[in-house]
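Fold this sequence, please.
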Amino acid sequence: MMYFYSKLNCMQTVDTYKEDFLTYLNSQVIVKEPVNLYNPVYYMLQLGGKKLRPILTILTCDLFNGDYNKSFDAALAVEVFHNFTLIHDDIMDNAPLRRGEETVHKKWDVNTGILSGDAMMIMAYKCFESYEPQLQSELLYVFNKAALEVCEGQQFDVDFETRNDVTIVEYIKMITYKTSILVAVAMQMGAIIANAKTKEAEAIYNFGLNLGIAFQLQDDYLDTFGDSKIFGKQIGGDILENKKTFLFLKCLEIANDVDKNDLLHWYGSNSRVDEKVEAVTNIFKRNQVSEQTIQEIKQYTQKAFSFLDQLSITEDKKEVLKNFGKTLMKRSV
């Protein structure tokens, strides 16, 4: 599955990594028979998105002076696996939109979404076939651990839907498993491919882990306070699904009894969509939950940056990672 590029003497820009990865993705993911299985796969992988995880695999490999051509299959594995989880998550949440377009199960049907998602999971594992046995074993070890933890995180998320005693600590654990671990292992695999020292591969893993938590907290924030045309998803979707997000849990922690009772009332109601979203959003605003969430995002971003001190890469390369993190936290999508 390798797709070769000439290695430049200087670090690539993030946009270049993305362009190169998309070229590789399009060379590998094609529609074939049966088309009703592979059309949804192709559709999902062409829906856009920042391609955060595969970019981080390639970037990390390059940062550690590895041959970043070798990282494309691991990057593809992460991206295909991530999108497989999104197809199944959308089915479980009955979500109508993904990146501003119809979700797979809405465009086709639930059975197609399940089967195409299953195929993507297998496709992700096949990406590792190009690596020599020892490297393949190392990559599969960390990838398997992360993949199972993603499933555990999804189960925590499902369990939280029927619980009214979820704590912020439990919530952070859930988003760590469900979302940030895949960001972390994407970077760890890039370091492993570059033959980085184990300690440094672990440090870059922890950088990605905390950056991933910040990224998911920002997703929570944008779900309520973002612009649907820019965000690409229905605003207030978490509210309508009664998701115990950071915003909800923080509000319960700091609000007075009246607002707490109102919030619990709305989360247990089947009121009109616009009425429910507006009411809950106003409760969040009254309790400055927006500001509290932004502060939490900043804290996890800074924690991520602290792990860069453990890396032996040059300061300008550390600055690349810092700038990437800062840019990520300024996103509106």
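The chain has one domain: 14-328. The domain at 14-328 is CATH 1.10.600.10 (Farnesyl Diphosphate Synthase).
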